Amino acid sequence: MSQPLNPFKSLSYTGYAPGVKLLVTAAVHGNEVCGTHALRRLIEELDRDEVVISRGQLTLVPVSNCLAFKQGTRNGDRNLNRALGPAAVPREFEDHVANWLCPLMGQHEVLLDLHSFNAQGKPFAMLGPRNNRGGTEPYRHAADEEAWVQVLGVDRVVDGWLGTYVRGVARRREEAAERAAGLDLNPNYGVGTTEYMRSIGGRALTLECGQHRDPHAPEVAYRAVRRTLAHFGLTDEEPPAPAAEIETLTLHEVVDKHHAEDRFTRDWQSFDAFEAGELIGVRRDGQEVRAPSQGRIMFPNAAAAARQEWFYLAQPNRRLAGG
Fold it and tell me: What domains does the chain contain, in order, with CATH numbers?
């Protein structure tokens, strides 16, 4: 384990009337600080009574991963937002974070997790699955999440994360049965904060507030938290109206690197569109990687290591179209 740091810290505000118990987290990745700035701003307003929690409970965690935050890096010892769950025998710093953060999630009903991303692009939210009784991510609160995501203040929403990740793991197992099991072969490695929260009965959204250094990202985070407070009735503010139009996409396939020298044909950014058959990348051995159908690229990672996620494929859906 790394050297001890400051104690884990959360701040709670409880209204006089019963209501929703909301947890808002930031800096799960230490270099994603827009949420930290937003929550510190909100704390000042709460302490000056400029924002009042009338009902329910609001708990704020401005810095979830204090080691990574102190270092200014994505991870401390490892990625906190993968294979998240309590650790019986903590070995890495993030295991200690999980042993504090997971019980805290268990004390709440709703989680909003604030993030940012490396490439340029506009903010978007990650939505959970549709209601289902399947084995990967059974769920029954889809309608609540769908109503909530429409008032966050963003106009792009993506779903399908965990199911796509698990299918990718199954393919890796078939292709590499002779290799010793590692993180890339562990289906639970796709479980982060929101997936864990849903697994214990809660509702959860991830908000990607913009590029890491975008000066507008803290405002996106702050606005989403204030809208969430009003939406769930923790404050007496008028509930926000849903967005008139939201672009919705579903992740459906993950493509791994086979070798570190596999390369993209251009500087792909998340949400870039491609046509069926379009050349996306070239393997070290010259094999072409082409789009199987029309769609969008998500989370392209030119620096990915061999046997790790290289990029995801997404297609539009009409999940929030109504009617």
Answer: 11-245 (3.40.630.10), 250-316 (2.40.50.100)
Nearest alpha carbon to residue 29 among 83, 66, 84: 66
DSSP state of 129: P
Q: List all residues 6 or more positions away from 202 whose beta carbon is below 8 Å from its beta carbon.
A: 105, 108, 109, 110, 111, 141
Question: 123-146: per-residue pLDDT in tens?
Answer: 999 999 999 999 999 999 999 999
Tokens of 131: 């209601």
DSSP 8-state code for residue 139: B
Q: What is the C-alpha to C-alpha distance for residues 2 and 95, in angstroms, rounded to an integer? A: 11
**236, 150 contact by CB (below 8 A):** no
Residue whose token pair is 């569109």: 273
pTM value is 0.94
CB atoms within 10 A of CB 250: 20
Distance CA 263, CA 280 (A): 9
DSSP lists the bridge partners of residue 205 as: 112
Closest C-alpha among 74, 311, 116 to residue 206 = 116
pLDDT tens digits, 232-272? 999 999 999 999 999 999 999 999 999 999 999 999 999 99
Question: Which stretches of 127-202 are assigned E, i.e. beta strand?
Answer: 156-159
Residue 198, CA distances (Å) to 106, 145, 201 in order: 10, 11, 5
C-alpha angle 123/193/254, rounded to 5°? Answer: 65
Cross-strand pairs, 264? 281
In angstroms, the CA 200 to CA 101 distance is: 13
Q: Give the pairing of strands 263-264 and 110-117.
A: unpaired
Q: 107 is written with which tokens?
A: 């004390």
For residue 33, the SS3 value is: coil
Separation of alpha carbons 115 and 123, rounded Å: 10
- Measured in residues, the chain has a length of 323
